[in-house]
Amino acid sequence: MSLGQAWSRISRAAFAFAVLAGGAARAAADLPYTNLQELKAKYQDKDSKFATINGLTVHYKDEGKGPAIMMIHGSSSTLHTYDVIADKLKGRYRIIRFDIPPLGLSGPVTDEDVNRVTDTDLPAKLLEQLGVKSTDCVGVSSGGTHCIYLAARYPDLVNHLIISNSPSDPVENARPIQSKGMIESAKETRALNGFRTQKSWDTFFTFFSGEPERITPQIRERYYDFNRRLPDKNIIALASKVANHELALDMFSRVKIPVLLVWGARDPLLTPPSADVLAGYLRNADVSKIMLPDVGHYPPLEIPERYAQIIAAYLEAATPVRPKSPDPKDR
Q1: Per-residue pLDDT of the chain (331 residues; tens, 9 = 90+)
Q2: Helix residue ranges, H only, 31-179
């Protein structure tokens, strides 16, 4: 078995677990599910904005001034992934982030929506509505795949990519080694028709974090709350995926801009060799790598202050902004 095949088995299980974590199972009346209205009452704030993109309601935040940076979260997550980082950088950058529907405070996704909206429609058209013609893109987990696809399809829009612990190979039939706590948590979730308890999320972060105590009670509560929103069968329909590997490899090969891989080396699923696999697929990009030996699957959650420093150092000191293609109107 090749290294890529072994990693593929692991990443496929991570994807399957994300589907489960998203609560795609049927809701049960006796479980403490919540709804979008209740979540808005608790989590909507003065910086919350809403856009209509291809008929979908998208919750987003647009903060700060300066060069734009779009930040994209992973499956089962929300734009809150970057709360601390946005606060640290918005004094010199324009930070744009959004909840991928139907996650966070964004609206639902119908089967019709799935057939007419692509994953990169959302960030590209949000940026267009905001008048942004040039951006960097930061993404963790499947959010990193989202950034890569955005850069591949809109080469004149994206200047740099900063990617953390993102998959690159298909995600079916993986058989990772899981902790006893994760096995018991999965049993509990199945018994509850897909509902994830707060204890289950605590177990999740113990398994996926380099140092679990970094995941604050506030972060844990948010994951519990947002993932007990009434289940939606299209929970990951608009996330960027690598299941179609022919498409994924094509997307990876199209990226021709500087890419920084910031990798949590204690990730039990996307282990350090997986960063090398992804770097190899980005064969036409200028790829740099930073390994974080004390961090797990979610660097932006575990070490947001360090992560903000890495972003700024990379964008300001390590790589120049590449020249843009001339606008045909100016010729």
Answers
A1: 233 333 333 333 433 444 444 433 444 558 999 999 999 999 999 999 999 999 999 999 999 999 999 999 999 999 999 999 999 999 999 999 999 999 999 999 999 999 999 999 999 999 999 999 999 999 999 999 999 999 999 999 999 999 999 999 875 544 567 899 999 999 999 999 899 999 999 999 999 999 999 999 999 999 999 999 988 889 999 999 999 999 999 999 999 999 999 999 999 999 999 999 999 999 999 999 999 999 999 999 999 999 999 999 999 987 765 555 544 443 3
A2: 36-43, 83-89, 111-116, 121-129, 142-153
Place of tokens 């590449």: 322
> Quick check: 169 and 4 in contact, CB under 8 A?
yes
Residue in 25, 58, 34 with CA at minimum distance from that of residue 226:
34
Domains of the chain: 3-320 (3.40.50.1820)
Radius of gyration, alpha carbons of the chain: 19
- For residue 8, which of 173, 141, 142 has the smallest C-alpha distance? 173
* Phi, psi for 280 (deg, rounded to 5): -65, -35
Count other Cβ atoms within 10 Å, centred on residue 310: 20
Structural tokens at position 118 = 């692509």
SS3 content of the chain, % helix, strand, coil (to 5): 45, 15, 40
pTM of the model: 0.88
Report helix, strand or coil for 233: coil
